[in-house]
Amino acid sequence: MNVEFRKALESITPNLLKSYLESQSWIKNGNISNQANIWHRDGDESYTHEVIQPIDSKIRSYGQRLIEAIKSVAEFENRDISAVIDDMTNFSSDLVKVRVTHPDVEGGTIPLEDGVLLIERSRDLLIASTLSTFKRQKVFNGSRSQDVQDFLGKLKLGQTEIGSFVVNLISPIEVGSETQQDGCDTSLARSVSMNLARSLTAISEAVDKYANSKSIFDFEETVNKGVSANLCDAIIGLSGRAKSRRFFYKN
């Protein structure tokens, strides 16, 4: 067992595993001597699939029992155990994926300078979305509020992926008291992700409208949906130095 694998397992607490199982429609319907919970699939009366979840991380065999539980989940989901562990460790975070496509990234690599630019502009994409989550305006200059700085300081860069080239940005989900533009009670991480999705949709729709109207006011209207000059600059940068790559966003 390598160091990273061991660290990932150590971060999966009984409550985290329980929350993950509940989110994936597993049903708890028994326990074993107050040492483990028994989970089955909702509607699976024959109990074809079963997960034995250890509930005391202090017992000596917790690590082995945890691996067995995750293997059961991976078998049901028909996925590699490392992929399931990755999902579990990021379960309390919002994951934003930025994927770029072009013939020169099909093998899962990217020219170095463009790779650096991609990560920088992916960061800028989230910064712009965070700023407009708190306040809508055309362009953001100058200093940032402490709430924004605190949130940006918690962002993490996950492992890149093949497909064609994917950057993963991770932000912790915490329900706080920040004053956001939409006044909602959801976590700031989730609000930023939703704001980014709205902004990108608004830009796409504005481009389609502009193709017919040739009116710059089609873009002016997107400011109220979280679009800013900062966001547009980040999007342009995602296409690379030659502006030749397409990008896709998923959260």
UniProtKB/TrEMBL annotation:
UniProt-recorded name of the protein: AbiTii domain-containing protein
Q: Give the organism, scientific name.
A: Pseudoalteromonas tetraodonis
